[in-house]
Amino acid sequence: MSATQSGFVRSTLLFLLIGTGILVGIIVATFGLVERTQETFTYILQERDIRRMSADLMQKLTDAETGQRGFVITEDELFLKPYEDSVGDIRQQLVRLEKAVKDRPAKAQRILELRSKVDAKLNELGQSVNLVRSGQRDEAIALTEADLGRVLMADIRVILDMFKAKSDENVQSGTVEQLEATRQLQWITIGGGIAIIAVMGGALLVVAQHIRALAASRVEVEQLNAGLEERVAERTEDLMQANQEIQRFAYIVTHDLRAPLVNIMGFTAELDTSLRALQAYVLNDGKTLSEQDIQEARLAAAEDLPEAIGFIRSSTRKMDGLINAILKISRDGKRQLKPEPVELKPLLETISNSVYHQISESNGTIELAIGVNQLTTDRLSLEQIVGNLFDNAIKYKQPDRPLTLQVRATPEGRHMVRIEVEDNGRGIADHDHERIFELFRRSGHQDQAGEGIGLAHVRSLARNLGGEITVRSRLGVGSTFVLRLPSDLSRLVRS
To answer: Is the dihedral of CA 372, 374, 376, 382 positive or negative?
Structure first.
């Protein structure tokens, strides 16, 4: 899994966990508030029932008392109907009220007092009714007009009014608590909604970034696919060039090294012939030699032997030079590359300073235009390439004008750096633009010492660095060597 995909998965899981945590928190808080609201609502209903039962009980007692007084005054049995109905309801209502207030300490502690007062009131009402029925109406009236019934009703009213007042307070506080719970639920819903929207926004942002990255990767893949045929053609051309170089190298080994060897073999035969003439002169064992034998021996000693030895030495020196050049390029190919960050401008300034005295002697100039700060490459190889190009520019400058050397460095594409070394020297003929990079090949008038390995060495170094070098040149105008290198050699070394 790539780093981008891993980051996307981690971010998605993180947002999913955050969103899940927020939802769980909202659900838990909502359930808690709903349960609390339900309990408060039940409590309010119970208090309202207590208030209603208290009011009903007071009304029933009033109705019973009204019926009782009507019967005592008129002795009409019609007044007993509401009295009798109320008495039965009063006892039932008192039982229900007692059950309702058992969990209300302030009310429960006065329920026994209420029951006592109600029982006393009912007894007082029943006693007056019984007196009337027994013909003792005056005693019944006297009992009714006494303060006992009025005091009992007043005490009962005080207790029931307290029940109603407490219930009203509890209903009010319960309503306030209910409203507070509703507000809390509202804020939790709003806050949770905002948090979820934020999480969704973050998740959408991560998804959008991933989609953009995928789209960019797809475009890059399409671009790579679009240039695939071109790159295949370039690689095929590189392979063909490499094959041609191998063939040229084989030709060099079989031809350029064979030529000195043939000379050595030929002059070795010449030495053998001259040696026989000398042997005939030196090893004559006292015999008389002809004038021709003496002349041949003298010619061999004076001319033939020195000439053959000189040619043999020259051929061996040439073979040694060729072999050393081949070994030098071979060693460069086997050298372990050490990619490191290289500040390009200081490096080029250092190389320029090292040859500045040679250029300034003829009023020449060096101009640097560096548009690349840094690249990762093998410092030694890059120094050898640029140093060789500078040396060639100085070696092959035009005698009739000061040397102008310009160096430009610019990025090329995403992963390459382009370095151009331009001079106003002799220039190179068109048909020699590729030939100058071959081993032991030189172009133009050969008035400078050399074996023809410099630019071949440069191309070998450039290719070892994963790059390439080419030349643009016109005879009598100057040359521009174009060096293309990867900006990060370490990636190629790892692969």
So the answer is: positive
pLDDT (tens digit per residue) in 83-131: 777 887 888 888 888 888 888 888 888 888 888 888 888 888 888 888 8
On the CB side of 403, CA atoms within 13 Å amount to 27
CB distance 466 to 458 below 8 Å: no
* Cα–Cα distance for residue pair 44/179, rounded to 1 Å: 13
**Global pTM?**
0.43
* Cβ neighbours of 267 (radius 10 Å): 22
Furthest C-alpha separation in the chain: 209
Q: Within 13 Å, how many C-alpha atoms sit on residue 383's CB side?
A: 13
Residues 433, 459: Cα–Cα separation, whole Å: 13
**Pair 297, 281: CB distance under 8 Å:** yes
**Contacts of residue 425, Cβ cutoff 8 Å, sequence gap at least 6:** 393, 396, 397, 398, 403, 478, 479
How confident is the model over 368-384, as pLDDT tens digits? 998 888 889 989 889 88
Say if residues 392 and 455 touch (Cβ distance below 8 Å): yes
